[in-house]
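re: that complex we talked abt at group meeting.

here r the seqs, copy pasted straight from the sheet so there may be weird spacing, ignore it
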Amino acid sequence: MSEAERRRPTPEQLLSQAEAEERCERHGKLKVFLGYASGVGKSFRMLDEGRRRKARGEDVVVAAVQAQAPEDVGELLRHFEVIPPLHTGDAACIDVAAVCRRHPAVCLIDGLAYSNPPGSRNTERWQDVEELLAAGISVITTVNLQYIREKQPQVEAIRGRAVRESVPESFIRRADEIEIMDAPPEYCVTRLESSDRIPELENQLSALRELALVLAAEVVDRQLEEYLRRRGIHQTFGTHERVLVCVTPRSNAALMISRGRRQADRFRGELFVAYVEQERLTQQDRDTLARNLEAAREAQATVEILHGEDPVAAILHFAGEHGITQIFVGHSLQRGWFQSLAPNPVDRLILEADGIDIRIFPHGGGKEAR
Amino acid sequence: MRDGAGRLKIILGYAAGVGKTYRMMEEGHQLLEAGRDVVIGYFEPHGRLDTIARSEGLELIPRRTMEYRGKWFEEMDTEAILVRQPEIALVDEFPHTNVPGSERAKRWEDVLVVLDAGIDVITTMNIQHLESLNDQMREITGIQVRETIPDWVTKRAEEVVLADLTPGALLNRLDRGVVYAPEKAERARQNFFKESTLVALREMALRQAAHEIDIRHAEGASGAQQEAASPAVRERILIHITEGASTAGLIRRGRRVAEYLKAECFAVCVLPESGMESLPAKTRSAIEEHLDFARKLHIETRVLQGEPAPETLMDFARTNGITQIYLAKPPRSRVPFVLRRHLVMQVVRLATDIQVTVVADRRR
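got the structure back, here u go
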């Protein structure tokens, strides 16, 4: 059985797939133009796509535009029917009821992260978008990475200040399509500031740009998985590094988990920690194991207890299901190899793992870089 | 980067038709409007009308024609660019292989010459041409890409910018005949332009673009820079070179991991005490080819002599502070007894103080 064949969907995966398909049938499609700063051209690209769709015969309207649009954006806007927003004092929000009545095929909404004025139908604009999607209207929208809620701590650390408005990352991750506006920071910087703060700003913006690219890659990775699953293709492309650390009570788990965490971070991948349940553990082993699994959770790994008489088969089965690309094991698995003619577990992992790298860690006390 | 050398910018894409060249032309116009001296050094129009229209108004350095086996070929005229000495040259298709008889085998070599003359270059390439991703690309596309660019060449670039487009939009463009003529478009749909392939390639391109930022900017979000600054945590990776066919994949994988970990990287081959001459000609040439390949990727190589080989390798690793040994997976279908004597398994057993990674054969 090859690694690819072993990758069968679990019941949870099938359920989420069924839910996603249901959502698809009822819902309009969501397309997001993601940028990491203002001035990278999100609004222009959104309107440009709207214009092209209109030229192909789709019924496209605009429901929200930014107040201070650059000249090229203003020029594009003239191609569209605009559904006027509702005004509350200075603030404005999308007229959801009017858009639903008009019921276009596609609605363009600039600035997904805006908060609505108090007393509006929804507190946030992304909730308005959710309503439109549920009503079967497709939405094309723009968002700046800095306004994604889960990115706020990083954005704040980088930029030194927080933003008030936000969109939950899960909403972005549900997008049917995402497209990234990538440009070197110099573009945004020259539009925003001048003189001595430029190098500092460029570094900050580079970090945000990297976060935006990785988020887009993750959304695309989920789309790839769904695409393959829908078509019953059980294949992994290894586009995304997934590290599986296999711990036993005797392995040098702290080092293995920290190395796994680092490897996953560097490759912007995922970390899994698994333990294959064994009988006849001493109390001391049990305590060690509990500590190791606690360390794994602290390292924000997905922790899994595996069952099975054959530990190697259990590990490989899990690896196949989760698209693992690297397995970390301890030398301790090898214990007792000389007592038998059959290959020891480490040898078997090396031979039987298909398309997965196997990294073997010494017991500890080795002169490994820490 | 050397003083006075031109600056390189790469516009990265994941397939033909995502808009790399168009974007390059757009930047050319912006630079021209900003009063800079920009020329098109090489443009491959592929019959794409919007891109051709966007190239208008930019000065074009005529191509040179060359005869090869009775046919005429057109290539970038590097000499003419040097003579013209613009501030910035736009050069399409960075990974292109020049027709035999050209001064340099690859366009990227021409670009290095242009950069060395102090001229900035903006160029275009697709993700599948990056050497270190070659094995993954074959897994994704089923195609062995021959025109590759060593990763160190792309590291010369000050910026790598992604030209992004959703696969849906790209397939739309393909169907409307924007990318290729109808017949070629149909063939492309059967092969490279399958949706799953495009989505996977796009993910690779997004990840690579993020990585390119990470290695260039001190405040990269993965924390790699800060850690690399301290030599105590610096990993040293040893890649074990043999005559085995999976060695090229091993070198690429080791190199890639080393780059992500900011590790130092060595390629080491262990010969018997009798040396290279005692080996069969075929083995010798395979080893030499692999060592050459490692050097081409700017990996330091060492050739050791000693027996038994596993002990020689381990001694070298210990005395040189190696933290990880990279080995190729041994061939399957061996009886346990023979397998246990295989070098890989022996190294795994001997390495009680050093991490060992057995790299999967991704050639399938």
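couple things i noticed - Chain B has a mean pLDDT of 89. Chain B touches chain A through 70 residues (CB under 8 Å).
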